[in-house]
Amino acid sequence: MRQRDIRFIMLILTVMISPLQITQAEDTAADYKTLNDIPYYTEEQTQQNEYKQERCKLDLYYPTKIKGFPTVVWFHGGGLKGGSKSIPKELQNQGLAIVAVNYRLFPKAKKPAYLEDAAAAVAWTFQHIKEYGGNPELIFVAGHSAGGYLTSMLGLDKRWLAAHDIDANQIAGLIPYSGHCITHMTVREEMGIKRDQPIIDDMAPLFHARKDAPPILLITGDRELEFPTRYEENAYMHRLLQVVKHPQAQLFELDGFTHGTMVKPGHFLLLEEVKRIVKAKKQAD
Q1: Residue 285 — pLDDT band, cuts 50, 70, 90?
Q2: What gap in Å lies between CA 285 and CA 283, rounded to an integer?
Q3: Around Cβ 171, how many Cβ atoms within 10 Å?
Q4: Do 271 and 91 form a contact (C-beta atoms < 8 A)?
Q5: Rounded to whole angstroms, how far apart are CA atoms 171 and 98?
Q6: d(C-alpha 151, C-alpha 138), whole Å
Q7: For 214, which DSSP code?
Q8: Which positions ≥6 away from 164 have C-beta within 8 Å?
Q9: Rounded CA separation 140/97 (Å)
Q10: d(CA 3, CA 10)
Q11: Alpha-carbon distance values, 172 to 32, 127, 216 (Å)
């Protein structure tokens, strides 16, 4: 049994005994509020684009009795072709806020609309979370599959958030679940490239690996049960980040879990990572 497997088993046992509360409060359902379908573009930015008006909304779930809480922006999966925003149950009642995001999908939208939307949603969070009691210095970005791809691209390729005058390095942590690290298969499809032809261009997270990126926790399912090459892409990303001397890059392979079933156990790793970074920032302050 590998060391990472032992660490994950110990984490699961810890969570079963006591939830990973990020901040201290009496966390009951009554202490949290959900706001649905908040537009993250201005009305002017969505004029004459009904699909943009329809899709570009987010849900905000946040604690009402905690100040300075961390926030996780969560992007759903679906291959950039499907899926819808939802607030993961395992992340609720944990002393943090969740921003669940819808973004435009192929074929109604084409690249780089997906990334533009993801960046706009993260920018909305930076601009507004303080109004709800959150700490804008503790904004994490995470997502599964296509959402993991968006997560890595936003954190590694600075141009998307720069369009909103935000430095990607302001993100407290990146936590992509089973995300593409090469150019996404749907983006390749748009360019007429076969699904089994790997490409690493400027639409690939690997293309933008850099030393000064935010802390990044890469999580995948079992390499034999995942989508073909998905673990290997993440392993390459992890190794490349080590080569460029990124100080806080981690990789977890969840043995026995498929691409779909790795999400729930992945949430426990996310909570532990958020807790670790929040603690480190408090100690640094």
Answers
A1: confident
A2: 5
A3: 25
A4: yes
A5: 15
A6: 15
A7: P
A8: 119, 120, 123, 126
A9: 10
A10: 11
A11: 22, 15, 9
Burial of 71 from C-beta contacts in 10 A (0-12 / 13-18 / 19+): buried
Residue 228: asked if its preceding bond is cis (omega within 30°), the reply is no
Q: Which residues contact 112 (CB under 8 A, 6 or more apart)?
A: 160, 203
Distance CA 275, CA 270 (A): 8
pLDDT per residue as tens digits for the range 189-248: 999 999 889 999 999 999 999 999 999 999 999 999 999 999 999 999 999 999 999 999
CB within 8 Å of 55: residues ≥ 6 apart: 102, 103, 104, 105, 117
Residue range 2-20: average pLDDT?
Answer: 51
d(CA 91, CA 268): 8
For the beta carbon of residue 6, count every other beta carbon within 10 angstroms.
10
Mean pLDDT of 123-139: 98
Give the whole-angstrom CA distance, residue 50 versus residue 257.
Answer: 39
**Could you tell me the pTM of the whole model?**
0.92
Q: Which residues pair with 38 in a beta bridge?
A: 58
- Token representation of residue 280: 């480190």
Cα 23 to its chain centre, rounded Å, is 20
d(CA 177, CA 42): 30
